[in-house]
Amino acid sequence: MEFESHRGELVAYCYRMTGSVHDAEDLVQETLLRAWKARDRYDPARAAVRTWLYRIAANVCLTALEGRGRRPLPSGLGAPSGDPGAPLTPALDVPWLHPFPDARFDVAARADLRLAWVAAVQVLPVRQRAVLVLRDVLQFTAAEVGEQLGTTVAAVNSALQRARAALADMGDAGEVGEPDDPEVRAVIDRYMRAFEAADVPALVRLLADDAVLEMPPVPLWYRGSRDYGRFLERVFRMRGSGWGMRELTANGQPALAAYAPGPGGGHRLHTLQVFTVTEGRIARNVVFADPRVFEAFELPGEIFLNEFGRER
Fold first, then answer.
1. How confident is the model at residue 44 (pLDDT cuts 50, 70, 90)?
2. Distance CA 117, CA 171 (A)
3. What is the largest CA-CA distance in the chain?
4. How does pLDDT run across 160-187, given as a tens digit for each residue?
5. How far apart are CA 209 and CA 282, in angstroms?
6. Rounded to whole angstroms, how far apart are CA atoms 214 and 90?
7. CA distances, 32 to each of 49, 56, 94, 98, 117 (Å)
8. For residues 244 and 142, what is the distance between their CA atoms, to the nearest angstrom?
9. pTM above 0.90, yes or no
10. Using CA atoms, how far apart are residues 20 and 28, in angstroms rounded to an integer?
């Protein structure tokens, strides 16, 4: 019986449930181990292998998440800061939401992997979260989800209705541009060039008026292009110009790995920035500085640039 081809989508499912790639990979490993041990008891007349694997994964996640708090972003914990010079003190006791490294996993649809959606889903009770993902994202029937979660179709439908209502109350970020959209690529390319040159006015021109900047594990966050720009001025005063950037994607969104200039001509990994682009402007930038995030994206800690400012 072949399980490995399902690993990517199972990791995406467990990530939607937990908000952590590291946790998701551990839970999928546990899922596949349980499936292997129970392979002799699998009945193909009752369910397809994929449906059966999701039954195991759903219960592994429910057990793992019992009693755990949600993984938030800073904007989900309080009001925005108006002080771009505030201390950047990490809140290491908070289990922050992590981004999803697209390049490492074969996942067909990524619309429901975007950071804002996963952050919103984290607020739901765990069983509602499971029902929402299994029904609305993975398109299992109510009967299949009832079998997977050991409950009735009526209970599944009720949980789905409550989950959808809760998400509707949280609002929506609007139409999010895809990373391969030419307009989105142009915006990110201009942002990258301006960031490399520490050109704050050029960066601000690319922002929506109410753009959000947040930086887990620092609990501070800012709303509005003015405060966003003032904070970047602080960053460039501290780190200078001549940055190196590497393009990638995360959560089905455009992303940049930012490398700050260091001694000896090298550039040290500084942050991973994940962008939400709407209507041709940057509406949100979630900036991650957690080494565990860098590890999940398999980013080199240092790069070297040639005389044209490009990575060698």
1. confident
2. 10
3. 65
4. 999 999 988 776 544 566 777 899 999 9
5. 9
6. 12
7. 12, 8, 29, 23, 27
8. 49
9. yes
10. 12
* Two structure tokens written together for 226: 């003015």
311 and 246 Cβ atoms separated by less than 8 Å: yes
DSSP string, the chain: ---GGGHHHHHHHHHHHHS-HHHHHHHHHHHHHHHHHTGGG--TTT--HHHHHHHHHHHHHHHHHTTPPP---GGGTSPPPS-TTS-----TTS------BGGGS--S--GGGSHHHHHHHTTS-HHHHHHHIIIIIT---HHHHHHHHTS-HHHHHHHHHHHHHHHHHH----PPPPTTSHHHHHHHHHHHHHHHTT-HHHHHHTEEEEEEEEETTEEEEEESHHHHHHHHHHHHHHH-S--EEEEEEETTEEEEEEEEE-GGGEEEEEEEEEEEEETTEEEEEEEE--HHHHHHTT--SEEEB-TTSSB-
Place of tokens 């050109």: 199
Question: Is 99 within 8 Å of 252 (Cβ atoms)?
Answer: no
Q: Name the phi and psi angles at 116, rounded to 5.
A: -60, -40
The residue-averaged pLDDT of 253-282 equals 92
Measured CA to CA, the distance from residue 250 to residue 21 in angstroms comes to: 11
